[in-house]
Amino acid sequence: MHSVTKTYFVQIIQEHQGIINSICHVYYTDDEDVKDARQDIILQLWKSLPTFRGEAKISTWLYRVALNTILTKIKKDKKNALNDPLSDIHLNTGFNTDPPNDDIQQLLFLVDQLEVNDKAIMILHFEGYSHKEIAETLNLSVTNISTRMNRIKNKLKEIFSAAYHEFRSI
Description:
Elements: H1 3-15, H2 17-27, H3 31-48, H4 58-83, H5 103-112, H6 116-126, H7 131-138, H8 142-168
Helix pairs in contact: 2-3, 2-4, 3-4, 4-7, 7-8
């Protein structure tokens, strides 16, 4: 690719590095895993750049590529873990055992308990994307996103209730 494309790519990465970092930190806690995921995402963005047609916002395209890369990586890591019982996957499955002390931390703790695809939906929702934009990003229907959002909301209530009752009984 010529230098204008490389310059454009570097600009995209610099402008949207917060998105990439956020996605990596939602799914991984270990610094090395975060770095690996970030590299995988950037590589996949580079490979996918020629397919970007400009029909969606660049951030929507970037989210789509980043989330699909992470979800594929997680599936691959889980498959490898099944084949190698000694492997150690550091998926972000809990911030810590202490109860979170503020609303944001509580919300992040709750979202962290969700399935990987539901986390992706919540990331996009928290970023302010509409159901239509989330559906486009994840290649799902708007109806599917609406249904999932209702299920996620109920699941978050269940998780909160269970965690609250468990904390209160300590």
